[in-house]
Amino acid sequence: MRLPARLLSASAVSAASVLLSGCFAATDSTSTGAGDGGKRIRVAMMQPPRSGLSPLSDDAFKLSRWSTAETLVRLDANGDARPALSTGWKQSGKTWTFTVRDGVTFHDGTKLTADAVVRSLSEATSASPKPRILDGVELTAKAHGDKVAVTTATEDPLVPQRLSSPQLSILAAKAYKGKTVSPVGTGTGPFELTGVKGTSSAALNRYDGYWGKKAKSPGIDVKFVPDGTARAAALRSGEADIAEAVPVSQASLLDEDQITEVPMPRTNTLYLNTGKGPFKSPAIRAAAREAIDAKSLVKGVYEGRADVADGLLGPALPWAADLRPSDAGRTKAGDPDGATITIGTFTDRAELPEVAATLQQQLQKAGFKVKLEVREYAAIESDALAGEFDAFILSRATILDSGDPAAYLYSDFGSEGSFNISRLNDAAVDKALAKASAAPAGEARRKAVIEAESAVLGTDAAVPMLHERVIQGDATSVVDAAHDPRERELVTAGTYVK
Q: Which Gene3D superfamilies match (predicted)?
């Protein structure tokens, strides 16, 4: 039986540190800086690449967090679009015209042009599957001098926000010549990706031809460490300078000045399979919803370092709570009557197996028979998307791609959504999602998003349990590491080790 992480002995933590010993030692091809004597930044990342670091997958967010691949647009702290590889844009009906920044070169020395932008965007729109930021979006791009015209099938008020998604990074031509898209030596950021060793490590060097401010660090050495205890141990032992996503159970073992805690637009949710099995019944889904005690999860598993969820959207979007209606009209719970269910989750986030064990007890108390299936995420995602489980526990970012939750809601709960683990196919939900997607930015869109959230919650296809706070570990020698709620930035041009 798997013990909760907080019960691991000191010897287990020590063993994790031993396993990491030497893992950040630079190789011949990646150890060089720029001859300035600066220190390379050693980063322990949580999840290994799932798709060979293809920017058309979730691996794009690793490229963004390493400041190696960039997009036309970036988002500010409020989620508003700001210039990046594009210096400005304007809308005319279905078409948005973006001016491409002059003086930018890719890491292979070739020049950023409008044609290069069109090539990258076209590769994304024709990919199978498409990046989820393009779910439900028909988008074409054409070059006109130093400008790129991006046209959608219908007027889309969020085209600039969509183009800020790391999955729409702009890469050099040679990135697209193989069977997969390769970001090695093809980005535009302050750091050049120089080597990748499968799912174990990656290395980046400072790119001195960067169009913006020169990186202060000569490079980054990345180790993929799925085990949260090992990531925390690497920071404690001095093997890592930055540890991504420190488990709650390990936070107390670090010095307070090594921890930064930020409310995240990330919700720990129980997705219920509406397509088959016991949860095809709305009454049985309602029974599961009523059986869950989220407060005990926050207190017991997360040690108070999380917020109880009232909806899918949490405190990282403060307007959501003010606009959200009551739960009046929810389906009445039925009797589980010993229904057997299998709940899946993954080990990459250390708290989730413990969440699963706690839910197992709560649901069994309510009359369910519960089996658990726990694997690494890479080994379980395809089964979850195929509807192989009755329920699935997922830690899900709600504004990861565009800074707007409508894209997440469509992806996870639209009948055509690419991440519809609940297998939800509900006409009222689809209608509400379409309204939210079409609404103009601002108050009208926020209200439409909450209406869509309410429609989803009304089906009990998903039971939001808690909103997470990210715990990032930084050695005291690290200066200006990013602490980004959207998980887009980690090491920036301004980050360095003293």
A: Dipeptide-binding Protein, Domain 3, Periplasmic binding protein-like II
On the question of pLDDT at 29 being above 50, the answer is no
Reported confidence tier of residue 13, pLDDT bands at 50, 70, 90: very low
CA separation for the pair 288, 286 (Å, rounded): 5
Tokens of 39: 């220190």
Residue 254: per-residue pLDDT: 94
Query: By three-state DSSP, how is residue 366 classified?
Result: coil
Task: Pinpoint the alpha helices (H) of 98-166.
Answer: 114-125, 159-162
pLDDT in tens, 394-420: 999 898 677 789 889 999 999 999 999
C-alpha–C-alpha distance, residues 259 and 89, integer Å: 39
Q: Is 290 left (phi over 0), alpha (psi -120 to 50) or beta?
A: alpha
How large a percentage of the chain has pLDDT more than 90? 75
Predicted local distance difference test score (pLDDT) of residue 28: 36
Amino acid letter for position 82? R
Sign of CA dihedral 394, 395, 401, 407: positive
Nearest one of 463, 467, 450 to 273, comparing CA atoms: 463
Token pair 């370092």 in the structure block, residue: 305
Report the SS3 class of residue 425.
coil
Q: Calculate the alpha carbon distances from 22 to 17, 39, 201, 255 in Å.
A: 10, 16, 12, 23
CB 359, CB 294: distance < 8 Å: no
What is the number of other CB atoms lying within 10 angstroms of the CB of residue 448?
A: 20
Task: Identify the helix (H) or strand (E) that includes residue 299.
Answer: helix 294-300
Q: Could you tell me the two tokens for 215? A: 């990186």
In angstroms, rounded to a whole number, what is the distance separating the alpha carbons of residues 290 and 363?
A: 9
Task: Delineate the domains of the chain, giving CATH numbers in brackets.
Answer: 10-68+189-241+475-497 (3.40.190.10), 73-173 (3.90.76.10), 263-469 (3.10.105.10)
